[in-house]
């Protein structure tokens, strides 16, 4: 193989690799519909916040319906699975100032961003089990771990909210 051909092949492989990385992150989202992806992810974050607030009320009072809490934890788990699909390239705060708080680091560290989302899914799954166990102490402690899974991702990948 000539040097020129080798360079071309390498470039092609890198392009294909990049294409798949982009596809897997933007799965299901139209490239020309960036604003709606931002709207959808912010709505998803708000939905998770509503579930977390309701669960916090029960944790704080150490009293409430743990079956209902299991359903709420399940919503967070399902949302965590959807989360990485709502960050198509071109939707960072550098691309869309004043429209989003998503740091460009998301697209520089896609693996790490996806792990943070997967970690939330895992912790929320454990929260479902904790709620189903009926043990308020176990539920309260797993709730705290789940909350940290939100905060850790925000520290790395979200700019400060004004
Ligand atoms: C994998 C990373 C990640 C995880 C996990 C995560 N978030 Fe977020 N969150 C973000 C990013 C990035 C933004 C900024 C989105 C934007 O502005 O486009 C955000 C934005 C938000 C916002 C602001 C929404 C708005 O109106 O702009 C809230 C509230 C929020 N998250 C709550 C939560 C809660 C609660 C959890 C846990 C149950 C959570 N997030 C888990 C990355 C994450």
Structure notes:
By secondary structure, this protein is mostly helical. It has a single domain (3-157), classed as Cytochrome c/b562 (Four Helix Bundle (Hemerythrin (Met), subunit A)). It has helices spanning 3-26, 34-61, 66-82, 105-108, 110-133, 136-157. The longest helix is centred in the N-terminal third of the chain and has 28 residues, at 34-61. The chain is elongated and about 45 Å long. The site of heme C has 23 residues, from helix 2, helix 5 and helix 6.
Observed structural traits:
162 residues, Four Helix Bundle (Hemerythrin (Met), subunit A), 6 helices, 0% strand
Please give the CATH class: Mainly Alpha
The overall pLDDT, averaged over residues, is: 87
Tell how many strands the DSSP assignment holds. Answer: 0
What does the radius of gyration come to? Answer: 19 Å
Reading the helices and strands in chain order gives HHHHHH
**CATH architectural group:** Up-down Bundle
Largest sheet: none
The N- to C-terminal Cα distance equals 56 Å
The CATH superfamily is Cytochrome c/b562
Predict the CATH topology: Four Helix Bundle (Hemerythrin (Met), subunit A)
């Amino acid at each position: 193989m000539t040097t020129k051909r080798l360079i071309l092949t390498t470039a092609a492989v890198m392009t294909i690799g990049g294409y798949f990385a982009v596809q897997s992150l933007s799965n299901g989202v139209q490239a020309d519909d960036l604003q709606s992806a931002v709207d959808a992810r912010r709505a998803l974050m708000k939905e998770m916040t509503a579930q977390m607030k309701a669960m916090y009320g029960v944790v704080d009072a150490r009293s409430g319906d743990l079956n209902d809490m299991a359903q709420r934890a399940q919503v967070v788990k399902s949302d965590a699975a959807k989360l990485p699909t709502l960050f198509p390239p071109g939707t960072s705060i550098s691309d869309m100032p004043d429209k989003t708080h998503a740091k460009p680091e998301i697209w520089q560290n896609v693996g790490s961003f996806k792990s943070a989302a997967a970690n939330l899914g895992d912790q929320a799954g454990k929260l479902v089990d904790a709620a189903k166990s009926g043990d308020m102490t176990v539920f309260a402690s797993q709730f705290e771990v789940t909350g940290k899974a939100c905060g850790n991702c925000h520290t790395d990948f979200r700019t400060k909210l004004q």
